[in-house]
Write a structure and sequence with these properties.
17% of the residues lie in helices and 33% in strands. By secondary structure, the protein is an alpha+beta fold. The strands form 9 sheets. The chain has an 8-stranded mixed sheet with strand order 1-2-4-3-7-8-9-12, with helices on both faces. The protein has a 4-stranded antiparallel sheet with strand order 13-36-35-34, with no helix packed on it.
């Protein structure tokens, strides 16, 4: 009953006055006695305490295609608000549509998994309402729902229905209507390693839980290997969260501009499934065309992210198995140094691309910076000190009894460092004196100098902004401004903004929880590169290599790199004047 009440909003007959009610189901949506028919299995899924959505109860249906005995993996398509899609009395009738399309080869043999949104049953029976999880699960951004499908729903479906589902994401689709549509898009957007084909009708890409950000994110993120079908009608909802018709057009425009394989079907209907059900066979035929060939990510030279990346240049592993890789910095010859903080080992990546141990430092050596004389200045947070690394194992203390996280050395020899424990940005001058320059940032983390070394930039790990300070003649800071406006993940920990670097065009590159965001000189995010592993925490980055055009990233237990169309600028060398920004 809970699902029926919720489903009336997403899949019912409501809509605006004047909508077209003439959409009719075609022959592919009817029972055909001349073809073989799949089998539907139903079960109830209760989520345990360790679940993504603990305590929820929901119904799940599984359609096994005709002749499927589990000996060979089949393609997969997941539907949200599953009860409406699996029914053969409503507007969708997916089992019959699958039967007909599979029979004539318009789509591969496909397992259908139909998932209802969860409820948390009342602890007082009929005297209280359950908690309805539909908006939480469907409307929110982030990877939770995809993780729930992967770790809980699909394993249960394969076990209950004895089906064999392919692991190839190119043969996996996901779809839904309204909030179920944005849930489908989010699952594929966050996890293209799980789903690459998206069917979306009357999608809720509006301001309920952040879905209104998607058109902007689609334009800024490096394109992902997705194929997307969108449907909506101009009598769709226009309420407090936004205008569904406008939002879907904005989504289509963004996907097409960014180079995605996208199709649309616009109509006159309202917030219902009449047109969606009528065009379902056509949409699925288009969605599965070309399978099982891989879906390639687009590359649009219209976009800054397309202009800053090299087609086909993917992330590659430099080294792995570290406990906490950090401290990425670049020497004058393009060699990249990084530390494995808990062990104190310092690695060097030379021109041959191999990471070798360069020296042993004290345990806890974290951030590092190359000084003008080529030596390494390192932060050791656990020891509350800054040190200079000399020889193979020697260290000389530069500052003690001070909190420290990140460090950068200017060509003048001044050392700037962050101290999150005191919410401070500090300076070590050439005479060895430590000064507190600022205490106005909640969690000062990474820092870097702009190419002409007139500004110091400081990231706030728990906030949304990178702060900009003007450097004065004596090295002190003035005119603090919340300057670079970062995009946030759906994460209570904030931006996760940490390590940073700059390129010769004056762009700022920032390691964040959302990915690598790069900003123009005016402080606007122009593009976002996805992390090589979605769940890995990105901590530091730099532009190094022979031509300073390789982006290095420390994330999780690995260090990665990829070729980009940018050239790094080193703070320990003479200042470089970048071109003026486009305002």
């Amino acid at each position: 009953m809970a699902w029926v009440l919720l489903g009336a909003v997403a899949l019912g007959a409501g809509g605006a006055m004047g909508q077209d009610n003439d959409y009719r189901l075609g022959p592919d949506s009817q029972f055909n006695p001349a073809v073989q028919h799949g089998k539907v299995t139903r079960f109830s899924l209760t989520a345990a305490d360790g679940s993504v959505f603990p305590g929820t109860v929901r119904d799940v249906w599984v359609y096994a295609p005709p002749g499927h005995d589990g000996s060979r993996p089949a393609a997969l398509m997941v539907f949200q608000d599953g009860g409406g899609y699996v029914s053969t009395n409503g507007p969708w009738r997916v089992p019959w549509v699958f039967d007909n399309l599979i029979a004539r080869g318009a789509m591969p043999p496909t397992v259908g998994v139909f998932v209802n949104p969860g409820i948390v049953p009342s602890a007082r029976g009929n005297q209280a309402l359950p908690r309805y999880n539909r908006s939480l699960e469907y409307d929110g951004l982030g990877g939770d729902y995809a993780a729930f499908l992967q770790s809980e729903v699909l394993p249960a479906a394969t076990e209950q229905a004895k089906v064999n589902i392919t692991a190839d994401p190119n043969l996996r689709a996901i779809g839904g209507a309204s909030s179920g549509a944005i849930a489908a898009f989010t699952a594929a957007w966050e996890r293209p390693d799980l789903f690459r084909r998206v069917f979306s009708t009357i999608g809720t890409y509006v301001g309920l839980r952040g879905g209104n950000d998607y058109p902007t994110l689609v334009r800024k993120f490096e394109p992902r290997p997705l194929k997307v079908f969108l449907q909506d009608g101009y009598n769709d909802l226009n309420i407090y969260g936004g205008n569904w018709w406008v939002a879907n057009q904005d989504m289509y425009s963004a996907l097409a501009w960014a180079g995605y394989d996208v199709a649309k079907e616009w109509g006159t209907g309202g917030h219902d499934s009449k047109q969606g059900g009528a065009i379902l066979p056509k949409a699925l035929t288009w969605l599965w065309t070309g399978a099982p060939a891989p879906i390639a990510a687009g590359h649009s030279t219209n976009s800054p992210v397309g202009q800053a990346t090299v087609p086909g240049a993917a992330w590659e592993i430099v080294g792995q198995g570290y406990q906490l890789p950090a401290g990425l910095c670049v020497a004058a010859d393009g060699s990249v140094y990084f530390s494995d903080a808990p062990t104190g080992r310092v690695f060097r990546v030379g021109p041959d691309g191999a990471a070798t141990v360069a020296r042993q430092a004290a345990e806890g050596t974290q951030a590092m910076a190359v000084a003008p004389d080529g030596s390494l200045v390192a932060a050791q947070p656990s020891g509350r000190r800054l040190v200079r690394l000399e020889g193979k194992a020697e260290e000389r203390y530069l500052a003690t009894d001070t909190g420290v996280k990140d460090v950068v050395v200017a060509s003048s020899g001044i050392v700037y460092f962050t101290d999150p424990t005191a919410r401070a940005v500090k300076m070590l001058d050439p005479r060895g004196k430590v000064s507190v320059l600022d205490t106005g940032i909640e969690f000062p983390a990474g820092l870097c100098l702009v190419p002409d070394q007139t500004l110091l930039l400081v990231s706030d790990m728990v906030g949304q902004f990178v702060y900009s300070f003007q450097i004065q003649a004596d090295g002190s800071l003035a005119h603090r401004q919340r300057y670079h406006h970062l995009h946030l993940a759906d994460d209570p920990r904030g931006s996760g903004a940490d390590g940073m670097c700059v390129d010769s065009a004056g762009r700022l590159w920032v390691a964040t929880s959302l990915g690598v965001q790069f900003c123009d000189q005016a402080g606007r995010v122009n593009g976002i590169l996805s992390k090589p592993e979605p769940d890995a925490w990105a901590t530091d980055l730099c532009l190094g290599g022979k031509n300073f055009d390789e982006l290095y990233l420390a994330a999780g237990d690995k260090v990665w790199r990829r070729k980009v169309r940018a050239q790094g600028v080193l703070p320990q060398l003479a200042p470089v004047l970048p071109p003026p920004p486009r305002l």
